[in-house]
Specification:
The protein folds into 2 domains: 111 residues, NAD(P)-binding Rossmann-like Domain (Rossmann fold); 166 residues, Dihydrodipicolinate Reductase, domain 2. 34% of the residues lie in helices and 28% in strands. It contains 9 helices and 14 strands. The protein has a 9-stranded mixed beta sheet with strand order 7-8-9-6-10-11-12-14-13. Helix 4 runs parallel beside helix 5, helix 5 packs antiparallel against helix 9 and helix 7 packs across helix 9. The longest helix is centred in the middle third of the chain and has 17 residues. GO terms for molecular function: nucleotide binding. InterPro entries: Gfo/Idh/MocA-like_OxRdtase_N (IPR000683), Gfo/Idh/MocA_Oxidoreductases (IPR051450), GFO_IDH_MocA-like_dom (IPR055170), NAD(P)-bd_dom_sf (IPR036291). This is Oxidoreductase.
Length: 319
């Protein structure tokens, strides 16, 4: 088992601590938080070992899970990598692209693996259709959330939209050609609502909308490709896959047949895969353990996290 520790014991940090304790792939050695009050409270309530410094925790681990505020990601991750320990780091990978690129170089220099916590990649609905999303040419994503003060220290693009950016980059796999975006600050010092149109070099267009002052929660994405429409509801963990194939010469009475102007007939049918239940955060942590043991590229590598941040920064710069 890999010895694991957590840096940062806020809301998400406590979830990671619980799941690392439950995981069969890790031995949770403890955690560190800059607040002694927090350290004492969590140690007393849950029995986790509280370390007195980042360095002491890092030294005791094989893998360190960085769940600190984004502004501290780079300094913590730099210590982890320079100590030769594998790094799991929450999204966004760092505050700036330059910092992310420095981490990439350090990871290669010290021969350690890193994974970024883009949890929607492990959402069972997305995983159920991931392999079926092939060369999409139009994508539409909506990620709406009710207001929560936690996370408003960064623009909504880095708080919410980056989930969809990462998911889209993973299936389009084409360089970004251009970005057009708009953002509005309503209650925070940074934009609370944002819309972005991303054009890729292969012709694909993605239209993303994110809001953290919505009246209801929504996390949906739709992928349009030749002969298929794929809808993913990340929140409800549901999918809808509508496909087309050449219509049979003698369709049954219930067949849905479309005919275009040239007389070509297509049959519409549903091909909805089963969506199993899972714990996406536990799955992403366990997937990283497997990558470490097998010495393979993590599903959401530091490179992937850097590219998602790069596109997010392009969007923010266009406001």
């Amino acid at each position: 088992m890999l010895k694991a520790g957590v840096l940062g014991a806020g809301h998400l940090g406590k979830i990671h601590l619980k799941l690392l304790k439950l995981s069969e792939n890790y031995e949770l050695v403890g955690f560190y938080d800059t607040s002694k009050e927090v350290r004492d409270a969590i140690s007393t309530e849950f029995g986790y070992v509280a370390f007195d410094s980042e360095e002491a925790l890092i030294d005791a681990c094989d893998m360190v899970d960085v769940v600190t505020p984004t502004t501290y990601h780079f300094t913590s991750a730099e210590k982890v990598i320079k100590a030769g320990k594998h790094l799991f780091i929450e999204k966004p990978i760092t505050s700036t692209v330059e910092e992310a690129e420095q981490l990439l170089a350090l990871a290669k220099e010290h021969n350690v693996l890193g994974q970024v916590g883009q949890v929607e990649r492990f959402n069972p609905a997305f995983m159920a259709v991931n392999e079926g999303i092939k060369n999409p040419m139009f994508i539409e994503a909506h990620r709406l959330a009710e207001f929560n003060p936690r996370g408003t220290d960064v623009p909504v693009v880095l708080d919410l939209m980056i989930h969809d950016i990462d998911a889209i980059l993973s299936v389009v796999q084409s360089p970004v050609k251009s970005v057009n975006a708009s953002g509005v600050s309503v209650i925070s010092e940074t934009p609370d609502i944002a819309n972005a149109r991303i054009e890729f070099e292969n012709g694909c267009v993605a239209n993303l909308t994110s809001s953290r002052i919505s009246m209801k929660n929504m996390r949906k994405a739709r992928f349009f490709q030749k002969d298929a429409y794929i809808s993913v509801d990340f929140l409800e963990k549901k999918v809808e896959v509508v496909k087309m194939k050449d219509a049979p010469e003698d369709p049954d009475d219930f067949a849905m047949i479309l005919q275009n102007a040239e007389g070509l007939k297509k049959q519409i049918y549903f091909d909805n895969p089963e969506v199993p239940s899972n714990n996406a955060i536990l799955d992403e942590l366990d997937a990283f353990a497997k990558a470490i043991k097998d010495n393979t590229t993590p599903i959401v590598s530091l490179e992937a996290g850097t590219e998602a941040l790069r596109v997010a920064k392009m969007i923010i710069a266009d406001f």
